[in-house]
Design goal:
Oligomer: single chain
Radius of gyration: 19 Å
Shape: globular
Structural class: alpha/beta
Distance between the termini: 14 Å
Number of domains: 2
Number of strands: 6
Length: 230
């Protein structure tokens, strides 16, 4: 991903690596367990819709790592959830008796934090967004709002802004915080959390992450925006 800034190119690179590692790992394990023929994936309907895989006239919004390059893997795909929306998957999981820690967990993007860093991904930026992600999740849970939200996460923006800390001028990164409510992820509304939650998140981020001096809150619905930034 070094030097790569285009979101679709980032997703394609991650997808190729994903299937390459799966094939390599299954080959290594074959000596222990025998040959693997199938790959089970948790692909759901919105993954296919956004990837333009449901029809020849569907626009590709973003390439999901488990969909667009699936043909690169030698393994045959088993995708029992591919026609279900996320809320339907959750109801199914609940009916099977899975714990709430799993059924109510927020969706996490397949390409990982790489698409929560706008522009080039570096180790330093990954460290920043990991720490910010931990803070957002901890504060949302502490305020008792985790299960009320579809997703809540930070995005590291590719800009720096001037600030002041103590008597010193700073020039550091800005982070956007995204919180949404939704039923199926096909549409979403930005959440209206208490100001105290946003204040606590902002205070912790700028105090605990020295590379950041500004926190913004995203008030855009889907559509016109997507939930994730890339």
């Amino acid at each position: 991903l070094k030097g790569v800034t285009d979101p679709e190119e980032k997703r394609m690179i991650i997808s190729r690596i994903y299937f390459k590692i799966l094939d390599e790992t299954s080959s290594k394990l074959a000596s222990i367990y025998g040959d693997f023929e199938y790959l089970g994936q948790g692909t759901i309907y919105p993954d296919r819709v956004e990837s333009g895989a449901t029809s020849t006239v569907t626009a590709r919004i973003k390439s999901h790592h488990n969909v667009v390059l699936a043909h690169l893997s030698r393994l045959r795909k088993l995708e029992p959830l591919k026609d279900l929306y996320k809320d339907e998957v959750r109801r199914l999981a609940t009916s099977l008796g899975l714990p709430k820690e799993l059924t109510e967990r927020h969706p996490f993007p397949g390409p990982g934090l790489a698409i929560r860093i706008i522009g080039e991904v570096t180790e330093d930026k990954l460290r920043i967004v990991r720490r910010a992600h931990k803070i957002v999740e901890e504060e949302v849970k502490r305020h008792g709002l985790y299960t009320d939200l579809w997703q809540a996460f930070p995005v590291l923006l590719p800009v720096k802004t001037v600030g002041v800390m103590g008597d010193e001028r700073t020039y550091r990164y800005a982070i956007a915080v995204r919180m949404v409510v939704s039923d199926d992820a096909m549409t979403a509304e930005f959440a209206k959390p208490p100001w105290k939650l946003l204040e606590d998140i902002s205070t912790r981020i700028v105090n605990e992450i020295p590379e950041v001096n500004r926190v913004l809150y995203d008030i855009t619905n889907k559509p016109p925006s997507t939930i994730e930034y890339e």
